[in-house]
Amino acid sequence: MSYPYSTHRIHEILKAEKRLPEGDADESKKVGKSGLYETRPELIDGPFVDMRYIAKAPVLTEVTTCEASFLLANQRVRGVGYHSVGRWNFRFKQRIPKGWHLNVCDPNLPTNDPKQNIHQPLPEFTTTDFKDFIRKTTKLWKIDLGRTQEGELFS
Fold it and tell me: What's the pTM value of the predicted model, to 2 decimals?
């Protein structure tokens, strides 16, 4: 079975403006000492697309543990993560850069293709806490979180 979205369509969806579904609360869940935020954004102008945004923070006090994923048809197409030390492959080519990076995944390619999951450095990306991380990654993928009655995100 082939993946329902072509590489070109994936880029179009990522560039399109998105919003939270009607009635979706824009708040993160605290689970013990960790955090989780998950939503199914919708295109503001366009047909239904099976999208999902997930942000996790295994340790809320450590901002570098935060990870976010953007999924289309239950396949990860983008992600943001942090590595304190860069990773290299057996040919001494850098595979994952040190610091914050953007994963660019293409489910249309075979899993053994080196272009199936590319790690691009995000040198300007900084974040202060889990909520700030959510704000910045949703902005990166053009997801409008909306505002609460007080005018603040995640009050």
Answer: 0.85
